[in-house]
Design a protein that fits this description.
With 110 residues, the protein is mainly beta. It has strands at 8-12, 18-21, 32-41, 48-53, 59-62, 70-79, 90-93.
Amino acid sequence: PFGVSGPRNVRVLSGFRISAQWSAPSGHGGELTKFILRATDRANSSAVVEALFEPDMYSGEITNAVPFTNYSVTFVACTAGGCPESEDFVDVTTNEEGTAILLKNSKLKL
């Protein structure tokens, strides 16, 4: 594919979820096989979370992000010939999430 644009309307929904919309590439020279929404940790480029989508979907969510992490979010469009990633990206920071504490056999009433 060519003409792969970056994601738009990127929103952080929680510490674990990032939503976005995208458009099909302007040209693809073959049948689109899948779309990928990708978030790369800006502090560690090998730490990537992503979600896969059917080629008829134009919005979706990453649901396995790490809380309180700075990500660059990109869009990838795939055909049998390859999977180019958008050069455009959107920087976001996921929300900080509280941690649950289990009080086993505690006399403290919650």
